[in-house]
Structures are given as structure tokens and as C-alpha cells.
Amino acid sequence: MADVTLRDVARASGCSVATVSRVLAGTRPVGAETARRVREAAEALGYRPNHAARALRGRSTGTVGLVLPQITNPFYPALVRELTHALHADGRAVLLADCDDDPVAEAEYVADLLSRQVDALLVIPADEDRSRAAVAAAAARVPLVLMDRGCGPGVADSVAVDNSAGMALVLDHLAATGRRRVCFLGAAGTASAAAERRGAYAAGAGALDAGAPERVVLGDFSVEWGRAAVDEVWPARPDALVCANDLIAIGALQRLQQLGVAVPGEVAVTGFDDIPMAALSAPGVTTVRQPVAELAAEAAHLLALRLSGDADGPQRSIRLAPTLVIRASSAPIRLAEPRRAERDTTPVT
């Protein structure tokens, strides 16, 4: 069957081709009755817009490039899903690139997406410092929104969770449940989320114990590092492990179980992100939940504002409030301690 054209829809609706184009593109207001006839005709004929032709006419491809640091981190597939839905609702498709935490590869992917004439970019930078030059150069060419992580001030619009608020929720919870000898298992490097979380820990942990801010070990955002980190810190017998993300927390739980350490009886474990694995582990991991759907919606909204003509407006920085999800890995000490056997007071006869 031949492709249905605007001319076919115009003939079926009794309108001009120009009117049909305005209705379907939403570029100018059209009377409600006229718009209804055009849409009904388009649906009856099975009309689908030709994005390639539209790109040639209007220099818009209807595509947005998305560059991630590492798709194997379970937090990012959930975010990609929400972003895809949010952008699809605006009539835009997503081109995805995974740089595997390498700023050099990230810069190459950004250049490749620009060469494919994407209308805009969404970037979760691999490194706050080393990603900055390529991201700033791209932001000078197309609308760009930074997500989850930043590249320093003055680069582009950004939306992320308030990492400091999330860490404060964790520390307040541990204090309320009787934990004092806390230790932070984090990620090294200058990715902004990693830096913000360990900075917030250092700023707030002193309220639990004077030595807590110094009890920090750094690796990366992985299960493997979570296991290795336990071996580094367990000789000091902390009573809580504050992990910079859920992957680290899950690795820590695995190693503690291998060592025969009771969680939460001897040590509490907390994470950050609330990936699906956090609820499925045994015990379930207390964690900071990022509002993924809201994160995606805000990013799509920021892009839409720039693409609609607000290219020269002031930069916007949005920080979203996290929530604490309390699970069994951080029960209060008095509840986590093994229950002592009750004394048998039955008289002997």
C-alpha cells in the first residue's frame, strides 16, 4: 500500500494541504471543528508523518541523543524507560549511547550524535571535570540538559536529586535507630553524585560519632567494590555501613553474609537509588529513593522549553527531593539483637 500523504488527508477532510499540515504539526491554531475533521481523516487513512521529510524541510529530526555513563548500572535502565516515555509523548525519539564511564568515549559519542543532527542532548556526565569541555561545546550547539550528575556551574540546564538531603535522611535514620560507629563505602573520582554523597556524609556523620567523618573508603559504584570494601573496614567493627549506591550495599551484604556477620544485628547497611535489587535482597536494603519518573519528566520539560524557542533564557537547575525507604537491613539495634531465651519458671514436681 502506498504511503498516505498530506494531500490524501486534505482530500478526505475537505481542507487545504496547508491547513492539514498546521493541524498535524500543531504549529498554528486552527478551529476545533476543522481540527477534528483533519484528525479523523488522518486516523481513518492511517496517516503517519514522514520524519525524514520533515527534517529536510524544517531542519528538525525529532530525535534526542542520550549519553549514559554505564547502562549496566540498574538505575539507568529505569531512567531510560521513563525518559523514552516522556519524550515519545512530545513526538521525539531517543538515540542512546553508553560511554562505559570513559570521558574520552563520551566525547566521541556526543560528537557522533551531533553529526546525526539530533535536535537536543541529554547527558549524564561520566566525570564532573573531564566531561566538562565536550559537554560545554555541545551545549553551545544544541539544547542540552544534564541529568543526575553535573559538570560544574554555567554549562547547561540540569536536573538531579538532592544528594545532600538524601544522605541526611540516612544519617538521621541511623542515629534514631541507635547506630554510632558508622562508616562510608563510596566511589572515588569526581562524578558529581559521588562527590556530593561523600561530602554530605562527611558533613553530617560527626553528629553520630566524632570519628565517623574520617571512616571513609572509596572505590567505585559496583557490587565487587562493596564486597572488597567490607574486608577493609570490618576489622574496626562499624555498626553501620553507609553505601553510596545500592550496588555497593548489595556487595557489602554478600560479603557480610560470607563472614557470618548478622545484618542488621551486628551492623546496619544502607544504600542509595532504590534499584529493584534493593528490595529483592535478603535482607531488603534501606535506601534513598530517587524520583525517577519526576527526573525524566523535568528533563523532558527543560528540553521542550529550549526547543520551543527559549534558547537564550537563563540556565535552570532543578533539585528534586528524595525519600527514604526503610527495610530490614537497618532495624534498630534493640530489635535487631537476637532474642534471648525466656527463663522457664515452671515449678518442678
Q: What integer is the average pLDDT?
A: 88
Q: What about the largest sheet?
A: 6 strands, parallel
The helix/strand order is HHHHEHEHEHEEHEHEHEHEHEHEEH
Strand arrangement across the biggest beta sheet: 2-1-3-4-5-11
Number of helices: 14
Strand percentage: 5-15%
User: Helix fraction?
Assistant: 40-55%
The secondary-structure class comes to alpha/beta
Rg to the nearest angstrom? 26 Å
Please report the total strand number as a whole number.
Answer: 12
Poorly predicted segments: 336-349
Describe this structure in words.
It is a single chain. The protein is of the alpha/beta class. It contains 14 helices and twelve strands. It has helices at 6-13, 17-25, 32-45, 51-58, 75-89, 103-115, 132-139, 163-176, 192-204, 223-233, 246-258, 276-280, 292-307, 333-336; strands at 63-68, 93-98, 120-123, 144-147, 157-161, 182-187, 216-219, 240-243, 268-270, 287-289, 317-320, 323-325. Helix 11 (246-258) links the parallel strand 8 and strand 9. It is elongated. Mean pLDDT is 88; it is low at 336-349.
